[in-house]
Structure formats: structure tokens, C-alpha cells
Specification:
The protein has helices at 3-9, 23-49, 51-72, 82-86, 101-109, 128-134, 145-162, 186-194, 206-209, 240-251; strands at residues 75-80, 91-95, 115-119, 138-140, 165-168, 198-204, 220-226. The chain starts with a helix and ends in a 9-residue tail after the last helix. The chain has a single domain (3-251), classed as Glycerol-3-phosphate (1)-acyltransferase. The protein has a 7-stranded mixed beta sheet with strand order 1-7-6-2-5-3-4. It is of the alpha/beta class. The protein contains 10 helices and 7 strands. The longest helix has 27 residues, at 23-49.
């Protein structure tokens, strides 16, 4: 049974990305790699040298970095609820993690001065690692529990101090099998600690145009839905697991669970 049949059988909202040929992606792959590395390095330099200007207007460069390769690969985004990301005030934008194309899509729709919680392994990627650090995003060392907890504490402090919009994947990593994995609890602890509402950010179609494990990006239409915020008002630490389960159920209205 394919993904469409699985979703339709359970009443979920299947999305047809209308995937195009992979030949275009093969031709453009070297250009995408070069753009990703050197474009990110350029952003890192600008953010470091012209930090005051960057805080006011520089985030448009981040969105441009994501949009240009999406454009030449023929990826069109259908965005709903974008005003929820742009609304003032602290919020946690929780997204499903699919493939390498996630980074381009997320960059292209990120609100100004967003704080990305990312795995420390990204520091090994030329350009992108430098840009993430220059933008003040927060790395999490998943191999060290104490350092991971310190990173989340830093994120909580940033949210409380600046009212930041934080972007993170509650799954923690991409699924090797396809479908939505179980959620880890870090994002939900962060929400309860800060009182920031959770905004589910559901991306559909990326698994079709850029499958997990493939460097190629095909043309197609990706749906990006910013859903109704989930309030954490009045919740305590003991409520975190139930909050994670409730939030995952919202994602599962649109996405199939991870395959066994």
C-alpha cells in the first residue's frame, strides 16, 4: 500500500506534490551545492560584520538563500496561515523533518530573527555551520545530555528575554523509514518553561520531491501549513508528555505515522 492509500484509508489529508522529472534536479545539483555553501558563507560574513543592519533587515537574505534554489528547481510553495508565523510575540514553530530540502523551505518562510534549534552535526557542513552560528541559532549536542539541556536552557532564556520565534523539529531527526516519528519532549519542556504557544508547521510533499537519503530535488508543489497555535497556559512539567502526544495528533491529521 502506497502513501496515498495509507493516508486515504485513515481519513488523513493526502497531498499530491505533482512531482516532476528528476533530470532537472540532477543538472542543477552542483549549482545548488555551491549556492548553499557560498550563499551561507556570505550571510555569515554580513551578519558578523554588519550586525546592527542585519538585525533590522538582514533576515531577507536568509529567505532569499532558501527561495532561489527552490525557484530554479521548480518548487512552488502553497502557504496557509503564514500570518501566525509573522505575528509578534514568542512562539515555538514545530516542523516535521523530512529531507535536505527542509532547510531551503524553512529558510524561505522563516520570520525575522528566528532562532533555529539544530543538531550540532550541522557545524560540519561548510557555510551552513558558520551561518547558523553567526545568526545566533542554538546547537544541541545530542550525544551529551548535560550539554543538550544547557542548550535548551539557553533557548528558554532567549525566548523569555526577546520574545523570539523558535524553530525546531520535535522528532529530533529525519525518519529513515518515512512518516512522522514519535516526538521527543525537549520542545514541549521549552514551551511549558517559557509559556510560548506551539505553532505546528506541517510540510507536505517534500518527501515526494526530495526523498530521504537522496541529494536530488525534483520540481513540484509543497504545502506549508501554519496551524492554529496550541496554548501551554497553566501547564506544568507533569503535563509535558501529554502535550507532546496531543501535538503529534494534530500533525497526524495531515501526515502518516512512521512506517514499522
Amino acid at each position: 500500500m502506497g502513501m496515498q492509500e495509507e493516508l486515504e484509508a485513515t481519513g488523513k489529508r493526502y497531498w499530491d506534490a505533482q512531482k516532476g522529472s528528476g533530470f532537472r534536479g540532477l543538472i542543477l545539483l552542483p549549482f545548488t551545492i555551491l549556492w548553499s555553501i557560498f550563499g551561507a558563507l556570505f550571510i555569515a560574513i554580513i551578519a558578523t560584520v554588519f550586525s546592527k543592519w542585519f538585525k533590522r533587515k538582514g533576515w531577507s537574505l536568509v529567505r532569499l538563500w532558501g527561495r532561489v534554489p527552490l525557484w530554479w528547481h521548480g518548487i512552488r510553495l502553497e502557504i496557509t496561515g503564514g500570518e501566525r508565523a509573522a505575528a509578534p510575540g514568542a512562539k515555538l514553530l514545530l516542523f516535521n523533518h523530512v529531507s535536505v530540502a527542509d532547510l531551503l523551505v524553512l529558510a524561505s518562510i522563516s520570520p525575522d530573527s528566528a532562532v533555529v534549534i539544530y543538531k550540532e552535526e550541522f557545524h560540519k557542513i561548510p557555510g551552513i555551520g558558520q551561518a547558523l552560528r553567526a545568526l545566533g541559532c542554538i546547537a544541541v549536542d545530542r550525544s551529551n545530555k548535560d550539554r543538550a539541556m544547557a542548550s535548551m536552557a539557553a533557548a528558554a532564556e532567549r525566548v523569555r528575554a526577546t520574545g523570539a520565534a523558535v524553530m525546531m523539529a520535535p522528532e529530533g531527526t529525519r525518519s529513515r523509514k518515512g512518516g512522522l516519528q514519535e516526538f521527543k519532549l525537549g520542545a514541549f519542556h521549552l514551551g511549558v518553561q517559557t509559556g510560548a504557544p506551539l505553532v505546528p508547521l506541517v510540510m507536505r510533499g517534500i518527501d515526494q520531491v526530495s526523498p530521504m537519503g537522496s541529494p536530488l530535488i525534483s520540481s513540484g508543489v509543497v504545502a506549508v501549513d501554519f496551524l492554529e497555535p496550541i496554548s501551554v497556559e497553566g501547564l506544568e512539567r507533569k503535563d509535558v508528555r501529554a502535550l507532546a502526544e496531543r501535538t503529534r495528533e494534530v500533525f497526524l491529521e495531515y501526515l502518516a505515522p512512521e512506517r514499522s
